[in-house]
Amino acid sequence: MSATTSSRTIRPADRTKAIKYAVRDVILLADKAKAAGKEMLYLNIGDPNIFDFVTPEHIVGATYDAMRANRNGYAPSSGIPEAIEAVKREAARKGIKSICHAYITSGGSEAIELAMAALVNRGENVLTPSPGYPLYTAILAKLEAENRPYYLDEENDWQPDVNDIASKIDDKTRAIVLINPNNPTGSMCSDDTLAKLIAIAIERNIVIFSDEIYDKLPFDGRTHTSTASLSDEAKIITFNGLSKAYIVPGFRIGWGVMSGPPDELRRYAEAIQKMERARLSANHPEQYAIKPALEGPQTHIAEMMERLTRRRDITHERLNAIKGISCVKAAGAFYAFPRIDLGVSDNEFCSRVIAETGVVVVPGSGFGQHPGTQHFRVVFLPPEDVLEKAFDRIAEIAADYC
What we know:
alpha/beta; Aspartate Aminotransferase, domain 1; Aspartate Aminotransferase, domain 2; 2 domains; eight-stranded mixed sheet; 15 strands
């Protein structure tokens, strides 16, 4: 590059330096493996539609009917009334009472970004779970705010370490992020853990961001407890959407439900509404799928969980049978976060797995992990035969280190 060209290069914003998104970043390695002729087995993306899960017909039909009725213009900024009311009824069924505001967004991701952007200033901090979904750290980087990770305890079924959380809160802490069920570990918070987190948030007057996108996908007869159902005093925004349980991630339909003392949350709710108006609206015709999804037939969920339970069990058994790999059994969602004790970094191990076998997994460092530990994330949405083949290949790479 010449000196003239270098001086004319457009410099990107500094805030983009800290943005990483491990789930997508591994595709660069996967593309190289594919170009080299490897048979690819993708265990990296939590998209049920690319496997053998199909969107329920009544959800597709509702959207199609809305498009045919020319509901193709802008929607109200917070969402269409029918969808807002359905979301509020769903929250009430989960036990959430003191609802101050509900808003429909382009996926749960936008609901999270609006809530964080309306709350957090540059230099302030938010506590995020480690391991946790990298969207939160990416948003905080854009806001030039501090991501302050707290650890989940692998020895205690990946429960949040409440003492670690309490020790990391200071005068610049604005919120605690809770992902329940958790991505990437598949863990679920106990009611006792939730109660302790709520007590801390109330005492320190900070917001809880409760990401519950996998709430309808618990295993083994477990019941999911919505964080906000345990307190009317705590200031909580509950995030959810259609993507996972209703098998429409491409619809990009999510929402946020703010609950807690109305007078104390009024200005914050107004700030979120300002941001809603600034971006016009979420997808319009897809919003007509929200009420049929939440209040229509739910039979597909039981069928989905039947298949996912078998795949979860295969994943747990096969990974724990590999020398140097151990894995906590997932309690919900469709992820596992196995630990590597092979004297090798997670990045090196995953790079070898992808390059040499075509099995695409994501390094644990992309989600956060306790210092000194190494992990990788597995998505067990693929059919059983694909999972079996993938774990055979992972075992071959692990054997090289033993």
